[in-house]
Amino acid sequence: MSTAVDVATFYRALLAGRVVPPALLKAMLGTVPDPNGDLPGQRYGLGIARFPTKCGVAWGHNGDTPGYVVYALSSRDGGRQAVLLVNEDAESLPQGTGRVFLDVLTRAYCGTRR
Hints:
- With 114 residues, this protein is of the alpha+beta class.
- It is built from three helices and six strands.
- The protein has one domain (4-110).
- A hairpin with a 6-residue loop joins β5 (68-74) and β6 (81-86).
């Protein structure tokens, strides 16, 4: 199981070009509109999403596995990052909880700067 620090470290390394070759990272970051995305204006690439926020573009992904829900956002330079881990099954959360998670996550993201 990964910690929030593990997830943030992975995204810093990925977006800095230390995980995949430059051509593959460029292809990953080429995005298309995602009408079913979690945020209005969200776009999706190859395994990574582009999220518009009030403080600029964030890259990351969400996911869930039995017992956990994870959202992660990172700027390209890694100077802004936020990771939200929730110990709960996504299916058991009340309707609208995802929106609350995203509000908390984007506030944390926009409030951080290394």
